[in-house]
Amino acid sequence: MRTSTPQIRAFALISATSLWAAAGVLADPNAPCYWPSTEPDGEFALGYFPCHAFGKEVSSCCAPGWTCFSNSLCMATTPSRSWPNITIGAVQRGACTAPKWDNNACGSICLTGDNYDGKLAYCGNNRYCCMGDFETGKCTCEEGGGNFEQDGEAIAQTIIQVTDTTFTGRPSPTTAAPPASFRSTESESATTSTSTTLSTLVTSGSSSSTDPTSSPTSTAEPASDGGEEEDKSRKKKLVISLAVAIPVGVIAIAFLAAWLITKRRRDKASKIGAAPEPEHSAVGNEPSYDMGLAENHQNGVNFGQHYYQQK
């Protein structure tokens, strides 16, 4: 059985007097209960107990704190140790003491696939959707949405594992809200779900006790488009930032290039101006020559004359 339980509740008016009388009929805790299954020996429905309100050989089964009804449905009415967080007013098709589910007492709705545990989404006016189909959008509470009417008069029989009637109020009048992914525009505009009466799950009389602690829930407000507006604002700021940053960057690069060119020209001019000038003699403006070369030349001349005289 699935552990997640959506906030699905049904409205029912339960007579405290009728429930007190029904609570005196205790189910046999030793009889096993089964889920609908293709297995030859069936699939055990752990935590479920037979109603046996009228001593039938085959009986529907409900969980502790759930009230058995004569049309094979169970309704959560009393918190228990096994179900401390029970959703008051939740409705489901119960389990059955027949392993092969070959008896009318077992019920004939929501038997296959994700619906085998019998959880129901109450649409109002005695109409339902199997919870598995409701959560995937295969069944809706709209007209022609695949919802169905449960047959048979519902008479409260017993509250499983409750010897005294502790439930004297009535469940919150809240019907199933469509899953968010399948919610229509019209249903999103509603702030609270419609209050309806579960006509078949009633007994004679009225209750004068106070309601349980549970209260009507409001449907979720439609998701706003604030995220989209914020995204547009961010894009606009980015465009403005780029429009300012790009021209500033271009101007800065142009100034840097001009400065580098000017600096390079100045460095080149300073190197040309620092070249050494030719040396001049102290007398007049005649350039000075290397005296060593002149002296060597004179020695050569003297040697030549001396050699010629000897010959």
UniProtKB/TrEMBL annotation:
Q: Please note every region of biased composition (Polar residues).
A: 296-311
Q: Which residues cross the membrane?
A: 238-261
Which positions make up the signal peptide? 1-27
What are the protein's UniProt keywords? Membrane, Signal, Transmembrane, Transmembrane helix
Q: Where is this region: Disordered?
A: 165-233, 270-311
Keyword Signal present in the record's keywords: the answer is yes
Q: What protein name does the entry list?
A: Mid2 domain-containing protein
Organism field = Podospora australis
